[in-house]
Amino acid sequence: MARRALLALLLLLTTSARGDETCMSPYMPKITGQEDWIYVWTLGVEGVGDGSDKLVTIGARPDSPDYGKVVSSASVGGRHEAHHAGFTDDRRYLWAGGLDDSGIWVFDVATDPAHPKVVRTIKTFVKDTGGLVGPHTFFALPGRMLLTGLSNEKDRSGKTGVVEYNNDGKFVRAVWLPDDAPYGYDARVEPRLNRMLTSSFAGWKNYMRDLGELMGDAEAMKHFGSTVVVWDFHARKPIQTLQVPGAPLEIRWALQPRHNYAFVTTALTSKLWLVEQQGDGRFKATAVADIGDPSKTPLPVDQSLSADDRFLFVSSFMDGMVRVFDVSDPYKPRVAHEQKIGAQVNMVSQSWDGERVYFTSSLLSKWDKKGDDNEQFLKAYGWDGKQLTPRFTVDFTKEKLGRPHLMSFGQEQFYKNQIYTAADGRLAQKAP
Amino acid sequence: MIRLVILGLLACVGAARGGELPVSPQALRGVDASALAYTYAIGSFVPEYTPPAPGTYELPVIDTLDDHPLVGEDGRAAQLFELTRDRVAVVAFVYMTCVESTGCPVSQAVLHRLDRALAADAELRSRVVLVSLSFDPERDDPARLAAIRAANAPESDWRFVTASSEDTLAPLLEDFGQPVARLRFADGRWTGLYRHVLKVFLLDRAHRVRNVYSTGFLHAELVLNDVRTLLMER
Predict the structure, then answer these.
(1) How far is Cα B196 from Cα B188, in angstroms, rounded to an integer?
(2) I need a labelling partner for B59 at 20 to 30 A (CA). Which of A313, A399, B82, B187 fits?
(3) Is residue B190 less than 8 Å (CB to CB) from chain A?
(4) Model confidence over A76-95: pLDDT tens digits?
(5) CA A56 to CA A41: how far, in whole Å?
């Protein structure tokens, strides 16, 4: 009886969500304290360093001599349009993709987390999947990896699908997106609802084309996604198509219990959309805010939602801005803070506790700005709920690294399987 | 609150018999409770959906397993495939000292519900086996497994097993893709706890992995529908 009571008590105890890493798969362990490293999946640039795509490790622990410095760099050889990456469900391996030739590289980050190494390369994505191109999102599932494609081999349009490999790199299945919403981009799962959302971007022939040239081609500009698809995740079946015009990109589910909604930003129309489950179980998409001045096409490209579902950081490429929306009322987001990050900015990632925010600059090799505006950086800031305070900057051109894109966090104690007591002084560690 | 539970549990369990000893439960007093339970930092999981009906979806082959030596709660050696042959199997990797609120206690509770559901279904009862497989063979020895089995009073074929030795444990975990590591203090002392990603495996009659459940997926009704889906295959 006592044992059963104890078990019941255990089941009632839950660990509350306290910050992010919020865009990570919910099936994956979180780094809840100070991150020690930032892994940056970086596009190679001809004439810059070795010119190859690489995983760059930046020191992020404030009391380390490596703070704000390049700790290591693992080149994969060649330029493949390095873009996104994601950890496996045990966080021991980081899968990273190339949008041009559809290569996938698996880095071991657990054995020596300051010096990740490629342990597996998958060069058969197109063949395995029956013609999908451009592995984009890497989303950990138990024992396997869920990926999205951006394009296809046949016509290089945005028609594509979602894919699964097991953690050993063995292909499991591919499911094409529905005919009424064939384009893909991001995929995010809310297990509590058994729902997956997928968004939609553009095919290889658009994303591998010079941006200025592309924007001047009215016909090509018609070939961007305008839908978000709702899936029965367990069945892997699309069940509803929502109209979200203007290339809906990153998807962020709210994290708090009973918050049955997600945010999506549209790149071309510069809107913040609320995708919410209704009383009948179906979903509804509503534009709830402008991001900057849509007439100036700021091109919002990434977003990061704090774990308490209060602050949504939205970065926009063209104006190099971050806008922090207070989304406490998801129907009425209001800009709580806005700040120029650089001449161009792409990804934004915040720590689990919400106290640190990082930005990188590169969008796509053929879309990044030219000349002096082609700043390539990782910038770290502190966030106190009101303002962003600069901490450090790594100049990826000066360091001869390339174009920094996706960021993922690593932590010494996690990979050493260690915990620290209060006496160790690590729990209360803060950035200077 | 959680600290009291942790201390209580550890005190109940006692030290390992030989091999590496965990620290005294008192040593965990200074630890941030969340640090012990961050395998899944996003709290509890209460499904808010009706799982799709059996046979309306596919469960592709995720992996194929090798056979592995085990030891049961009766102390007898057995091969994994002896337990699972020609039956659908639900295999949960656990250790009986686990204190994570979203970890092993959840999987054991789900297996308990599955056990009752299987026992009540004459068609399923003989075609499914439940396996609680401990990755802590030193502490979860046959005597302890037998006691836990008795406490659960299974009504279907629910086995409690562990690896036959530490040497056979590593290839077993590697084959399933179930990483496990002893969670230590910074000075190297073992806390008595393991870091592990909660995983429960659904095996078909040919020892192939057809689904993997973790905290967010582990829902008795969903697993039952998956079992029925596999049994509908010819």
Answers:
(1) 18
(2) B82
(3) no
(4) 999 999 999 999 998 999 99
(5) 6
